[in-house]
User: Fold these one by one.
Assistant:
Number 1:
Amino acid sequence: MQNRDEIFAILRDALVELFELDAERITLDANLYQDLEIDSIDAIDLIDHIKRQTGKKIAAEEFKSVRSVGDVVEAVHRLVNAVP
């Protein structure tokens, strides 16, 4: 199981790699759409990357409510720590 800090580190690295963002811009409070300029196509790429990293897919419905990097961390934390 991964804790929130590990998930944040993986997510930060993914955002840097996929979207060529500066790591310093990526904080838990950063808004994906306004601060990091992630668009809907980028969000799909991010969901796909998370699926490859975790082996689990985040439901698109759940991702619609995500606004900040911290929201993504929470969604992934719930996903990877869900009791089957």
Number 2:
Amino acid sequence: MKDHLTLFKEIGKLKRTDREGWKRLGVEDVESVADHSFRCAFIAMLVGEKLNVDISRLVKMLLVHDIPEVKIGDLTPSDGIDERKKRVMERNGLESLLEGTSSPIKDELIELWDEFENGESKEAALARDIDKLEMIIQAREYQERYTEKDFSEFLIPEEIETEEVKTLIDDLKIEL
């Protein structure tokens, strides 16, 4: 367990890693990457209950998908980094973060991250959509607080694959 302590401390840095897209719009006191990951995992736990998915794997995937940001920060499309290059940077950050972690755990975390990035399993597709859904929910909350700012770029459900998340997004629109 001692080899995990370093990882626990490193992961704690996500609590102080701001979500950069919100800062670009001038939001003060922005959510952290840890805030985002927590709500994603919570949504997955509740949504997953109603679906035929491996909830444990789904939640784990959502807890792992942003941890490379401990090493590379929260990169956004406005940073102008090619998606392929960003993925390599994130994978390298993940591997660096997991140095010194016992092999079975390290292998599982990398496998979960790869599965999320590839989006090929039912759980991965749902996890990717939940990640987008959480962003939309957060944008709605900021829009209510900062009525003078335009959050529309974050309110568009781009490339949502799963019907379950499409339904949740439609429900959000009704609440306008």
Number 3:
Amino acid sequence: MNATKNEIIQRLEIIPNDKLREVLSFLNYLVWKTENPRTQEDIEWLERDLSGLDNYEPYEWQEGELQEGLPVKFIAETGKIEIGV
């Protein structure tokens, strides 16, 4: 085992039991992040300038459009949302 893993194990020994759930949650997040790396599309979306969003009119949802589980897709070229795609 390398030195970093040994240090982690030593630290786990002194963490109170009620905090171990937090440690496990964080470790699970790190594993998930390793197994699901960001794609270029994710990076571009996160870096997009959203400062002009308030220039758009609010979308008026129609009755039944907000049903749980109904997929939606935003079409950037037209500014429209497709429901049930």
Number 4:
Amino acid sequence: MNEIRNISLNDLTDYCKNLKQPSYRATQIFEWLYQGQVSSFNKMTNMSKEFRCQLQADFQIGSLKTQLKSVSKDGTIKYVFVLEDKEMIETVLIPTKTRTTVCVSTQAGCKFGCRFCASGIGGWRRNLNSAEILMQVLHVKGEAEKLTKPLSHVVFMGIGEPLDNYDNLIKAIHVINDERGMNIGARRITVSTCGVIPKINKLSDLGLQIELAISLHGYDNESRNVLMPVNKKYPFDDLISACRKYIKKTNRQITFEYILIKDVTCTSQAAQELKKAFKSLICKMNLIPYNPVSEFDYETPSKNEIINFQNQLKQFNIFSTVRTPRGRDVGGACGQLRHRII
């Protein structure tokens, strides 16, 4: 049976028209799903019983089964959800003093195999459909409301490469952003990519005001080849060029995510090379201290090493912030918790 959250508002409008229902019924359904967060068509009380029965016959309202829920001492909550076909995904609720963010997965597993990330261990299984993406956001939205910390931001930084599941990603973003849906502002939605250049170009054509984050994690072709196999298909220099085009076309600043690994990416040489690459580039860097994964033989830099690296970037007029590690005690790095139980 069709999962109704795979259906766009336009498709719902067509469905209602085919049943000789007024078009506004589609908006009512949409609002019940994403604002009312109903789990049953019977709860859509401003529609006739007959129409609700028809909806029940044609669609289902699915839900995610929680396999594991881990609460960190810093307030981060990490969920492992089981999908209908028994695949597992991770979703994270990240509360701070100023915002509440959900980190969302877009695929079961990952095919890109970055050599510091647990998401790709075990390989790629499949894309998530838009309903499976939206159900993660809805679940965390409900949990955040229970904690009186309303959901404010959505980041697509969970398991999988978002732009490798482009159509379902964009479909979900439209619902999240729609004022009749979850009504979360576009600038509070961030898509992270390891650098799938054709889809970055395609995204720039949409005119969305969302935030784009590039998982750079290397300072030139050679260093990025070691950590990110995707660089062999979409090389460092080509990626930076695509980012420059994206900024020019959208007039939006890009964030570069950059993992800090002791003696690998957190070095004076790395800072010098980034100075060359980022010349005249409108961007900011999010420096991410490495979160150890047992399968990879890397170490986290010391606090002084991180400060020294950031100071070097500042000297080169590269603005950066250091991401505060979250949820380390509950397998906070992407894919860690899922990997432990599959």
